[in-house]
Write a structure and sequence with these properties.
The complex is a heterodimer of chains A (185) and B (351).
Chain A lengths: L11 H4 L2 H19 L26 E2 L14 H5 L5 E7 L7 E9 L8 H5 L5 E2 L16 E2 L1 H6 L29
Antiparallel strand pairs in A: 1-4, 2-3, 3-5
Chain B lengths: L1 H44 L20 H11 L10 H17 L21 H21 L3 H32 L4 H7 L3 E2 L3 E2 L2 H4 L1 H14 L11 H4 L9 H26 L13 H28 L5 H32 L1
Antiparallel strand pairs in B: 1-2
Helix pairs in contact in B: 1-10, 2-10, 3-4, 3-10, 4-5, 5-8, 5-12, 8-10, 8-12, 10-11
Classes of the chains: A alpha+beta (185), B mainly alpha (351).
The structure holds iron/sulfur cluster (2 copies).
One iron/sulfur cluster binds next to helix 3 of chain A.
């Protein structure tokens, strides 16, 4: 296929550069005056003070969701750490008193320096226990150690999840749904 | 002999005061403000905000304090010397670049009368050429002593650029000498006070319009700023001749560029915009002289603004384009302008 380019053939006046340079100076000056006095076209966001809202789909720092009784929702099934391509989720499981729940994590640690924010963990999770819709992006820290986000930290951003767990509808998971902060995946 | 003593004291003191006032306060002051203004101006015309964070408690003054914050930052940064056989040359280079840029201000008349210039010399413009060309040595020395190939390339480019444009600018200004018959800047300015055909002031821009354009182009090129920044060439040479400079060494090289911007403005105002002349205003009472000094500074500032706008408007030239523009376009134009001026002057003389 022929390539279509719309080139302006420069004529003598254009090639002399002088008129064009003058036009350019006029244009730039007009824009300057407009930004200074008139309608401002300024697009800069003054970052720490003003922030642009992230889209709802933004994958931010991870959060662990909670049950209605404030327990962590995660059942330590290791699916997320298995799915994780960066191998950055460390989970240590322990037995839960509730026989229906079976397990819970005693340690749940994500090394955010290794994480590539791919979102596979939240895709893999059968319990809607790990999510990335916190809208927080990872902030810089002074040490590497601080980038390992532990359970407490992840729960700090926690939201109440009301989605059915393990495919089975359980009434006590649904107490307090009136807040409805989350949507089932 | 007390009288001679007093005379010398007066002359020296007076010269020092003028030097401090014009060179240190005006030229350096404007150059310093330019370091901030350039960034702010370019930001606003590109729909950005520009530097505005430096503050003094609650006072930000629109970022004006950046011009103080920057030197402070530079003074405290590591002053790095690369592994080079010529460290002393590396250290010396910024000064060689900086001092000539300041010295040439001393022959620019900023007000009416013999006394309104730091050093009254008939050499005038020749002195400026001689000294201002020295500052390329600073850049070349620095480039060479950096022991860095980017710098070396930058250095070579500056020398080539300087040689090409020095010729063109010299020939361009010859037209001015021919018309006003003098190289003394004060003399040139005084003659620009005449009226042509009884109404137009005989400013350089009226008598030598082509030369004005050529002068601007060549002067900006000699100053190594965009669109002629092939020596610095952010894109292909990282920072060209000052790649290896850090801290105040870099600061000096950078500010000498801004001092040159001011110099080009002042010289352009002197040669082409009638210096301190205001059409229709003559006299030597104090307020009038003050007004004329103000007019000169205003014209200089206008040209500085023009340079800044051109710098942020035009895309940069490639190295070969710079050379072609210099040798094939500007130089022939300067020659044609020179010959044309000669013919016209001869015809006028005949009458
Ligand atoms: S976002 Fe991807 S890399 Fe990060 S923890 Fe989840 S699965 Fe691992
Ligand atoms: S996949 Fe979900 S439930 Fe399983 S360990 Fe990860 S976070 Fe916990």
């Amino acid at each position: 296929m022929a390539k279509l380019t719309n080139r302006i053939q420069p004529d003598m006046i254009m090639q002399s550069y002088l008129v064009e340079a003058f036009k350019g100076v006029a244009l730039v000056t007009r824009q300057f005056a407009r930004n200074l006095f008139g309608r401002k076209d300024i697009v800069t966001v003054q970052y720490p003070e003003d922030r642009r809202p992230y889209t709802p789909r933004f994958r931010g720092k991870h959060l662990l969701t909670k049950r209605a009784d404030d327990q962590v929702r995660c059942v330590a099934c290791m699916l997320c750490s298995t799915a994780c391509p960066a191998n950055c989720i460390t989970i240590v499981a322990a037995e839960h008193q509730d026989k229906d729940i079976e397990k819970y994590p005693t340690t749940f640690e994500i090394d955010l320096l290794k994480c590539i924010y791919c979102g596979f963990c939240e895709e893999a999770c059968p319990c809607d226990a790990i999510r990335m819709d916190s809208g927080v992006h990872t902030l810089p820290t002074l040490t590497r150690r601080d980038q390992k986000s532990g359970k407490i930290d992840l729960l700090g951003l926690a939201k109440l999840s009301t989605s059915a767990q393990g495919g089975e509808f359980r009434a006590h998971d649904h107490a307090g749904t009136q807040h409805g902060q989350s949507t089932p995946h | 002999m007390p009288t001679t003593g007093n005379l010398i004291l007066d002359t020296v003191l007076y010269t020092l005061v003028k030097f401090a006032g014009f060179v240190l306060v005006f030229a350096m002051g404007v150059a310093t403000v330019l370091t901030w203004l350039e960034r702010k101006y370019s930001a606003v015309l590109q729909n950005r905000i520009g530097p505005n964070r430096a503050n003094f408690g609650k006072f930000r003054l629109g970022g004006l304090l950046h011009m103080i914050a920057d030197p402070i930052k530079m003074l405290f940064k590591e002053d790095f010397t690369p592994d080079t056989p010529n460290p002393w040359m590396f250290r010396l280079a910024p000064f060689v670049a900086f001092v000539p840029a300041l010295v040439v201000f001393s022959v620019i008349p900023f007000g009416p009368g013999e006394k309104m210039m730091v050093a009254n010399t008939e050499l005038g413009i020749l002195f400026i050429f001689a000294i201002a060309s020295l500052n390329v040595y600073g850049a070349v020395m620095g480039a060479w002593a950096s022991n860095n190939k980017w710098s070396l390339m930058g250095g070579l480019r500056i020398s080539a650029q300087m040689i090409s444009y020095e010729v063109a600018i010299g020939l361009t200004l010859c037209g001015i000498f021919m018309i006003y018959g003098s190289t003394d800047l004060q003399d040139i300015v005084v003659q620009q006070g005449q009226l042509l055909w009884g109404m137009v002031p005989a400013w350089g821009i009226v008598t030598q319009p082509v030369a004005f354009v050529l002068y601007l182009a060549c002067a900006i090129a000699e100053n190594k700023r965009a669109p002629f920044d092939v020596a610095e060439a952010e894109a292909e040479l990282t920072a060209g001749y000052w790649t290896e400079y850090s801290a105040m060494g870099f600061g000096l090289l950078a500010i000498s560029e801004f001092v040159e911007v001011v110099l080009i403005g002042c010289l352009g105002a002197t040669l082409f915009l009638g210096g301190w002349q205001i059409p229709g205003v003559h006299g030597d009472s104090v307020p009038l002289v003050a007004l004329q000094i103000g007019a000169f500074l205003f014209k200089a500032l206008f040209l500085i603004w023009l340079q800044m706008t051109i710098r942020w408007t035009l895309p940069r030239f490639r190295y070969d384009q710079v050379m072609r523009l210099g040798w094939r376009i500007l130089l022939p134009l300067a020659l044609v302008n020179l010959v044309g001026t000669g013919i016209v002057l001869t015809l006028i003389d005949r009458k």
